[in-house]
């Protein structure tokens, strides 16, 4: 998300990936590709709620400068089943190995979309959900304390969000959720970006439907595809404890940093380093 972070998220992840989990720090995250003659994998970036592909601008520039083919298809943020089905179809148009990256709710999308695609060689979760089968983003939000999504757990709607009802062309109705402007900088950016820049990102945010946050995940791709995780210690949306729990459950390679939910906005170098670490493992 060029900014946002998703609901209060907690994930229980556990099962088998044929890789031993490794915990690293940012300083050791960026590998060297010098001397490698193999073509680099295509990096596919998937944004989450209250954001859009432009949130990855800094990451895209760095990856392209390092010679990686990069694409960032938009996430509709309408339903997990619809969003992941679209991404799954898109991935089938890409030839060769893929490193699939999801931020926030985008992590839920890549978890479902990559299942069964042999071209996806690595999954990268950036302050993201990595749900197990049957889990939803909304469920996972409450698993560990620490989210700033609400200050009233009993409220029907998280207090940092505003609801906008809508009617679709076919007559069906739904609810779009926006982060309130006065909560956006804290929730998504942990106040690590200036007020003017944060306000601009809040104005451009793409809403997510309530349905998308309540949809249950299918069989998770992280059970069979090696995974890398950025655990953001200063995430005000998904508690770091939740991110660490999901990463450990998935037997993922873990990098920790004092980044906010939208780490791709504030710290593109850290995110790029993690992606390149995953890409290097596909050589």
Key terms for this structure?
alpha/beta, 30% helix, 283 residues, globular, 18% strand, 7-stranded parallel β-sheet, disordered N terminus, Rossmann fold
Please explain how this structure is put together.
- It is a single chain.
- The chain is α/β, with parallel strands linked by helices.
- The protein is 30% helix and 18% strand.
- The protein contains ten helices and ten strands.
- Helix 1 crosses helix 10 and helix 5 crosses helix 6.
Per-chain topology:
Layout: E1 23-25, E2 42-46, H1 57-65, E3 70-71, H2 80-91, E4 98-103, H3 105-113, E5 120-126, H4 137-141, E6 161-167, E7 173-179, H5 181-189, H6 195-204, E8 208-209, H7 210-214, E9 227-232, H8 240-249, E10 253-257, H9 263-266, H10 268-280
Helix pairs in contact: 1-10, 2-3, 5-6
CATH architecture tag: 3-Layer(aba) Sandwich
Query: Globular, elongated, flat, extended or rod-shaped: what is the shape?
Result: globular
- Amount of beta strand: 15-25%
Low-confidence stretches: 1-35
Provide the spatial order of strands within the biggest beta sheet.
1-10-9-5-4-2-3
Compute the CA-based radius of gyration: 17 Å
Total discrete domains: 1
CATH class: Alpha Beta
Name the average pLDDT: 89
């Amino acid at each position: 998300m060029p900014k946002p972070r998703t609901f209060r998220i907690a994930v229980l992840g556990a099962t088998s990936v044929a890789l031993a989990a490794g915990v690293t720090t940012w300083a050791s995250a960026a590998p060297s590709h010098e001397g490698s003659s193999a073509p680099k994998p295509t990096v596919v970036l998937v944004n989450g709620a209250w954001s859009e592909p432009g949130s990855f601008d800094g990451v895209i520039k760095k990856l392209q400068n390092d010679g990686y083919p990069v694409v960032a298809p938009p996430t509709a943020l309408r339903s997990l089943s619809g969003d992941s089905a679209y991404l799954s179809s898109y991935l089938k148009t890409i030839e060769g190995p893929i490193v699939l990256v999801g931020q926030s709710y985008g992590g839920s999308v890549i978890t479902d979309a990559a299942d069964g695609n042999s071209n996806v060689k690595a999954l990268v979760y950036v302050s993201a959900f990595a749900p197990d089968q049957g889990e939803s983003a909304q469920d996972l939000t409450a698993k560990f304390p620490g989210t700033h999504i609400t200050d009233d757990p009993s409220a029907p709607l998280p207090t940092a969000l505003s609801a906008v009802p809508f009617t679709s062309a076919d007559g069906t109705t739904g609810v779009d959720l926006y982060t309130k402007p006065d909560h956006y900088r804290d929730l998504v950016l942990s106040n690590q970006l200036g007020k003017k820049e944060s306000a601009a990102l809040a104005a451009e945010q793409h809403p997510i439907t309530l349905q998308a946050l309540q949809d249950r995940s299918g069989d998770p791709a992280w059970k069979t595809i090696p995974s890398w995780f950025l655990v953001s210690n200063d995430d005000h949306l998904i508690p770091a404890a939740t991110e660490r729990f999901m990463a450990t459950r998935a037997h993922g390679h873990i990098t920790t940093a004092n980044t906010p939910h939208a780490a791709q906005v504030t710290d593109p170098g850290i995110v790029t380093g993690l992606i390149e670490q995953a890409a290097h493992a596909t050589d």
